[in-house]
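If you are new to this repository, start here. Below is one unmodified record pulled from the training split, so you can see the exact layout before writing a loader.
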Amino acid sequence: MSRIVVLGGGESGVGSAVLAKVKGHEVFLSDMGNITEEYAAMLNKWEIPFEQGHHTEDLILNADEVIKSPGIPSTAPMVRKITEKGIGVISEIEFAGRYDSAKKVCITGSNGKTTTTSLVYHLLKQAGLNVGLGGNIGKSYAFQVATENYDIYVLELSSFQLDNVYDFKADIAIITNITPDHLDRYGHNMENYVKAKFRITRNMSSDDCFIFCSDDEITVRHLDQIVMKAQKLPFTQKEEVPQGAFVKEDRMIVRYKEEECDMYLQELALGGRHNVYNSMAAALAAKAMDIDNEAIRSGLATFQAVEHRLENVLSIKDVLYINDSKATNVDAAWYALECQTRPVVWIVGGTDKGNDYASLIPLAKEKVKAMICMGLDNRKFHESFEGIVPEIHDVTSAKDAVQLAHSLAVSGDVVLLSPCCASFDLFKNYEDRGRQFKEAVRNL
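And here is the target side for that same chain:
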C-alpha cells in the first residue's frame, strides 16, 4: 500500500482520491483554496482525510506519489517542492488509466473538443454500447473507474490533463485542431503547447487510430516530428482522401478500411463549417469502433448541441440571443462570428491569456455593429477594435451586458456572447458565465 497525496479538491482531485481509496492506498487530499460543500461531503463519505485553505508540508512531502489536479500549474510552490524531493507527480488520467481495461476514445484540441467528445459519446451510446463519458466533461474519469463498469470511455482531455500522463494509452485519439491557447501556462511558447496536445498519442500501437484535421497547418507540421505507430486517419474539407473523411459537393464521406459511409451535410444536426469537421472526426471514430452506417447517420442527425457552445437561448422581438460562453479563446470566437448571417451585438471579455485579436478584425468589421466588453480590464479590446466596430461599451456583469445588448439590438440582430477569454475575473468558470447570461436573457 502506498501513500497517495492528491492536490486539488475539485471534480478531478476528489475522483482521484476516491479511486485511490477504493484501490487500498493511504490517501490524503490538500487544497490551497476552499473545497465546496458537495466535494467535502463526498470526501467525508469515503472517509478520506483532507485539508483546505493551506498545504501542510509534512503531510504532503511524505507521499509516494502525488496526483495533481489539472488547474494547478507545475510552477506552483508546493509542486516545485514535491518535484525537488523526487516524488512522482501524475495526473488523474494517468492514475485512472492504471486501473481501467476499457477501450478509450480520447479527444483533445484547441476548439471543438467538447462538441466532438459529446458527438462520439452520442454515436456509441445510440448504437447500444456500454460507454462512459469523462475527462474534461461530465463526471471525473477516476471516479467512474472507481464506481462504474464501462466497456468503453469517451474522454475529453485538455492539455493540462495531458501534461502529466506517461503510460496512459488511447485506443483512438483525436486532435480536432491546434491554435494558440493557454500560452500563459506554457511559457508563452507555442511549441510547448503543441507538444502537450500530442501527448494524447503516447504509447499508441499499430492497432490504434489517430484521427486528425489535415486542413490544420499546426497539426500537420508537427506530425513529422512525432514517432507514431498508430494508423493515421485525416479529416478534411479541401480534398478527397483514400482513408479518412472528406467533403464532396454537398456530402460528407467517411472511408475506413473497406467501408464507406456518406451523409448529406444538410442532414447534420449541427450547422456551420466547424461542425462539419467535428462531425467528420466523430464519424471516423465511430467507424473505427465498428458502428454501422445507419447508426452513424442517425446519431449525427439527432445530436443536441452542447450547452455554452453556440447555444440558442431565446429569440425576443426577433433578436436571437446565443450563449457561446465556452469560446474562451480567439479561434473559438472566430468560428462563432464566421457562422453569423445577421448583424451582431458581440459580448466579449474576461481574463486575457495572451490573446492576439488580429484574426477577428475582418469578421468584426463585416458583422459586428456593437461590442460590449464584460471584464475587469478591457483595454486590449478597445485597442484592437476601436475604429473597426462602430461602438464599444464596458460592463462588469452578465445582467448589465444583456440589458445593454437588448437596448442596442433591433429586429433581425443577434446578441452573441462569445468572450474570447477565460471567465475567472468575474465568474467561477465559463459555465457560471453562460448560465448568468441565460438567466439575464430570460429576465428581459
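Two things worth knowing about this chain: The chain is about 35% helix and 25% strand. The two ends are 58 Å apart (CA to CA).
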